[in-house]
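This section describes the prediction task in plain terms. A model, or a person checking by hand, is given the sequence of a single protein chain and must write out its three-dimensional structure as a string of tokens. No templates, partner chains or ligands are provided. The sample shown here is typical of the held-out split.
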Amino acid sequence: MSAFDELMSHQRETEALGAIAGRLGWDQETVMPRGAAAQRGEEMAAIESVLHARRTDPRLGEWLAAIDATALSQADQAKLRLIRKSYERNTKVPAKLAAALAKETSIAQGIWAEARANEDFDAFAPTLQKVVALRREEAAALAAGGDLYDALLDDYEPEATGAELEAMFSALRPRLVALREKILASGKVPEPLAGEFPEDKQLALSEKLARAFGYDFNRGRIDKAVHPFSSGSGQDVRITTRTALHDPFNCFYSTIHEVGHAAYEQGVSEDFLLTPLGRGVSMGVHESQSRIYENQLGRGEAFTAWLYGQMREAFGDFGVADARSFYRVVNRVTSGYIRTEADEIHYNLHVLLRFDLERKIIRGELEVADLPTAWNERFEADFGVAVDKPSNGVLQDVHWSVGLFGYFPTYTLGNVYAGCLNKAMRAALPDLDAQLAQGDTSAATGWLRESLQQYGALRSPKETIAHACGFAPSEGPLLDYLEAKFADLYDL
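The expected answer:
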């Protein structure tokens, strides 16, 4: 075998083992017995030790040095680039630290869930402090004297920097705040849904929505979780959702959102499976898929007209007079506590709060003990509402418990990318709304699959968006879309 063939064979096994580790994570959040948390931590640490050893195997350096990249195809050159980057990053992190992170974050997830249920941040704080300390140690090893937060951000959005994102977010904030103030001052914000919506009917319609957006159940499944997520790649891509008796939108739009993530993974070319190209290129690009499915498609007037009919079939008369009124209810703007339930205007303000706080935490400018106070003060300043309990504040998200520092800003970056993709998609598909009004998303999802999803991690994140759209990504299309949509909804 050539050096390239040996490298690819080694990598294929590493990718397969990584998929197994991901399946353990899915199991932990869905069906694992609560009493198994400590043992699962040991299991996760053990498999992470094996993965770290494979990712830092000295033979990787030898194979990479022996390969003439100029003789390879674009795809094979991209594989080498990603393997080299992974090798260089992983060799900077001691195996003991990698295993400790895997064990601590696995255990921390269960402690967070219990603390959240009991509204008890103090019960979670010591564990979070351990996770933060380990992530700071990892960041220091990776940064080599550079910015600690940027070192962690690179795991989720390669080539991005905190300073770059801060500049983009600063450009977003003024127009978002101005639009929010106009909407709330209009006096036309509709009342939320009232009544009860049985869980079995919610889950049945949730499955119908997943199928409508092209989710392949032959290679996936839907389960329930406290915090909805998507897991896996290629031939095994699973999603979760949640239900709330008085809020079916929580279930429906969580499902559509996670289907967007899953569709990206299911849409990657089979030629790339179990290679470094066989997954989404970044969390920002991943989020662009979930957000365009959920918002520009799922919350658009055309598709909500179809969904209105589906809800009347499922629940009978649920108190909304017509499709236009339903469209307004779906896009109701309010200063709620929960990021995952936020409207399109407030959502990015939720993300900016988390981005600023976690950046300070990793840099050592904010300690875990001071986090609830910092969160509550910032939230009241941004949203005009005081946080009433930890589950509506600092304990609402799972991310920090599992060490995902650097992840949050990719949510807003995904919205920015989705704005760009929507602009390009609408130009390519001028009759799209007529199809969406029939519950047919195939033109839109097909365009996304052909323009972006099939390429996996072939290109860098920015290049992936630019290739799909035909122009470089910026915040302008997102802001233009939001202003046009909500001006129409609220007669601004």
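For orientation: The domain at 162-489 is CATH 1.10.1370.30 (Neurolysin; domain 3).
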